[in-house]
Amino acid sequence: VLGNQDLQDSIKPQEVEFHSLNFNTTLHWQPGWAREARDVLYFVQYKVYGQSTWQNKDECWGISSLVCDLTHETSDIQAPYYSRVRAALAGVYSSWSLSCRFTPWRETMIGPPMVTVVHSNKSITVKLQAPRSPYRRKRGSKIPMTNYYDLLYQVFIINNLLDEQHRVLAYEGKDKVIKIEDLRPGVSYCIMAKMYMPMLDHSSAYSSRQCTVL
Questions:
Q1: Has this prediction a pTM greater than 0.85?
Q2: Which of 52, 70, 97, 204 is the most exposed place for a label (fewest CB within 10 A)?
Q3: For the chain, how long is the longest CA-to-CA vector?
Q4: Residue 37: is it exposed, middle or buried by C-beta count within 10 angstroms (0-12/13-18/19+)?
Q5: What percent of the chain has pLDDT over 70?
């Protein structure tokens, strides 16, 4: 039989880390090595760096899940946060496992833009929409990520006769509607786009491919 100290060590959460996309922020962790891991319950706290008291996250207090949504708790995007998780099994509590420091503005990942493609016989018009944050304006619409960062759209065109590697940067800038001209009729073209942040030299993933035959 495990002693209390061994049980505490065996259920202690591992690899506590923040994941964040467009300021949608969740805390993730891995279970300890206890065999009864499915019966373990987890308790999450958070605080801003420099505060002395930890806050309980009520919705993640005594949960069996390995993830906790902290979007609302990390809404001051310039502030540095910490979170910590402890586990309990059969009335025995582990010690706390601490995350690394997390500053949303520096560390959130930017998602790709939404892309709509309209073609005519020799050109493609590309309409771009920046990803949106979870935070809302007073009127209720979600605030786009372009409000928080100096972001550029990068639009790539792929001629389907050539291979996937021939991605040509057709446009970089802030325009939401761009026109790519002098294309060949009867050729299949695909458009992909991503967001680029010059200041931090970050890029989003590519949008899904939008293909069209002129």
A1: yes
A2: 52
A3: 76
A4: middle
A5: 95
